[in-house]
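Title: Comparing notes on inverse folding

I've been comparing how different people in this forum approach sequence design from structure. To keep things fair, I'm posting one structure and asking everyone to reply with a full sequence. Here's the target:
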């Protein structure tokens, strides 16, 4: 058995809410690389992220109380730090048939608007202070892979995903929403072609969208308590992984990742 700890503990400093990942909610790009390890293999990965995002002198957006009014001052850092964890295990049934279990935290959000102390009611921190949102997800992917030939591999299996979310908007009648954890099921399928002599490998993996129906509790000063359902479809994606040897002890790797964020809707 091989035991790996990837990256020790990476410290990332981000300057945008999207963290350079599409959609702003995606925190990890799914990988099936463990399927290509020899024998049994156990891997862990972790990252600690300290994002930084602030703004100055905005206006209250349309549709909210006081829309169009000019704000003053700096918002302060709007994003909280977070830790992201991953793990994977791979084993073999025989020379051609293998299995893997991959645990990841693919989606997430941590925003928190600092409260203000200024006497100016249109100070940005006084208007938005106390607002925030948190979304946590965990996905477990179980894959079965089969070596069609010594160069062609196909794989697939179910994906079970958990989502938990809450949010508050202090400037909107102290609105708060808290959703119970929801579990949804999808699938992943893919194929790979490799040339072992030159360490070449190309793999294409598709992951389906996953629907979540969350029991949601809403409350506000104006409207009181309300129990409702919230539907979230996490998006389908397509990932292309590529590697090839170019010289002795030199490997070139690349990845292309498409996510259908255009179809994501929270209703």
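Reply #1:
Here's my take.
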């Amino acid at each position: 058995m091989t035991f790996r700890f990837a990256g020790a503990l990476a410290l990332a400093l981000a300057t945008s809410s999207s963290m350079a990942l599409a959609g702003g909610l995606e925190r990890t790009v799914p990988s099936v690389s463990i399927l290509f390890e020899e024998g049994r293999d156990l891997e862990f990965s972790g990252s600690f992220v300290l994002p930084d995002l602030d703004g100055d002198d905005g206006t209250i957006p349309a549709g909210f109380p006081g829309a169009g009014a000019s704000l003053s001052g700096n918002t302060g850092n709007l994003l909280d730090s977070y830790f992201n964890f991953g793990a994977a295990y791979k084993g073999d049934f025989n020379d051609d048939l293998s299995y893997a279990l991959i645990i990841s935290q693919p989606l997430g959000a941590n925003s928190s608007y600092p409260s203000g102390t200024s006497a100016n009611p249109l100070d940005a921190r006084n208007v938005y202070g106390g607002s925030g949102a948190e979304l946590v997800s965990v996905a477990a992917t179980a894959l079965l892979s089969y070596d069609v030939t010594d160069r062609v591999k196909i794989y697939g299996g179910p994906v079970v995903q958990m989502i938990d979310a809450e949010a508050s908007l202090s400037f909107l009648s102290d609105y708060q929403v808290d959703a119970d954890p929801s579990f949804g099921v999808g699938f992943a399928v893919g194929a790979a072609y490799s040339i072992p002599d030159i360490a070449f490998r190309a793999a294409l993996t598709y992951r389906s969208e996953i629907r979540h129906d969350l029991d949601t509790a809403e409350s506000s000063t104006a409207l009181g308590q309300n129990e409702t359902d919230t539907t979230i479809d996490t998006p389908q994606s397509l990932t292309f992984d590529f590697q090839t040897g170019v010289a002795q002890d030199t490997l070139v790797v690349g990845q292309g990742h498409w996510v259908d964020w255009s179809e994501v809707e929270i209703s």
